[in-house]
Amino acid sequence: MVHTLSGRLRPTDLLEFHRLMVRTRVAEERVELLQKQGHPVGALYRSLGQEAGAVGAAMALRRRADGSGDVLAPSLRAAGAMFAFGATLEDYFRQYLGRSTGPTRGRESDLHWGDPERGILASVTPLGLMLEVMAGVALTFRLSDEDRVALVFHGDGATSTGAWHEGLSFAAAQRCPMVLVVEHNQFAFGTSTEKNTRLRSFTEKAEGYGIQAQEVDGTDVLQVLDAVHAAARRARMGEGVQMVELRYFRRRGHAQHDAQEYVDPAVLAEWEARDPVLRYRTWLLEQGHASEEMLAAVVAEETKDCEVAAERALAESVPQGSDALSEVTSDPSPLPPWTRRIPPDPRTV
């Protein structure tokens, strides 16, 4: 494996990639356990086998907590990116458990939440639509001459939606400083990629929009880091939208209710042998960046932190029925949105 940036990274940075991937995996395992115990959690979308993509992409960006850094729109399988951008384990479990103390106050129960100050923009459900949203965000960066990049994750299926193509067409034409990460995980819900498109690689779609694209091994966190870092640099330099395709495999069903019976066990075993966490762990040991004891300690620490955060969330309150009416506007003459310079004429409202 050739890694351009690894030689320029501090040992603490290299170890942080491992910690974030481990945190993602043990956090999802804990939510799966809570779900099996009957706690009121919604659908769980495991990122098993895809942790390196989310972590590597997010760590390639400028992460700040004051609203001035790069921004990203995570997918349902990009919890690692949210953790890299500062999302806490407490909020992660509060959200999945539907607690009133959570980011959406119990109105949602999966990864549809964000933290704009940290640069995390909450995703919306219709596939492909966040590309349009992030194209608008990136356009504001270009028009205001801000040295910032917007990154958006999308899976196989989203690339066949109208919103995805409309957003990409606009973003490419406007030369928006945006990085589009296509998570080529071999399935869209229960439909294999080969039944979703005739293309071997989603990078071939980039040619039709005149944008640069690169395909990388999504199970190698440092390859992902290199590719997204280079793409973000080009976007900052005014070269417009960049695409990075991450090739890996969705080792669980679309959500926990999906038994994934449509997957050949031999194919699944092949991808299990390319586990991103174990691959990176082996690389750290071979390169002398860590010892067995150090890495085992990280797993133990993250497992304990997840246990504590989950128990804390379980002890917190669920929303009351009356909470559904809070922050709901029914005023017939609301304040004009920030997108309108002139207040609306009351006669036309």
**Major beta sheet summary:** 5 strands, parallel
Q: Strand order, biggest sheet?
A: 1-2-3-7-6
The share of residues in helices is: 25-40%
Q: What structural class do the secondary elements suggest?
A: alpha/beta
* Assembly type: single chain
Radius of gyration: 21 Å
What string gives the helices and strands in order? HHEHHHEHEEEHEHEHHH
Overall mean confidence score, pLDDT:
90
Number of separate helices? 11
Give a structural overview:
The protein is an alpha/beta fold. It contains eleven helices and seven strands. It has helices at residues 11-36, 51-59, 79-84, 89-96, 129-143, 162-173, 203-207, 221-236, 265-272, 276-286, 292-314, and strands at 71-73, 150-155, 178-184, 187-188, 191-192, 212-217, 242-247. The strands form two sheets. It has a five-stranded parallel beta sheet, with helices on both faces. The protein has a two-stranded antiparallel ribbon with strand order 4-5. The model has no long low-confidence stretch (mean pLDDT 90).
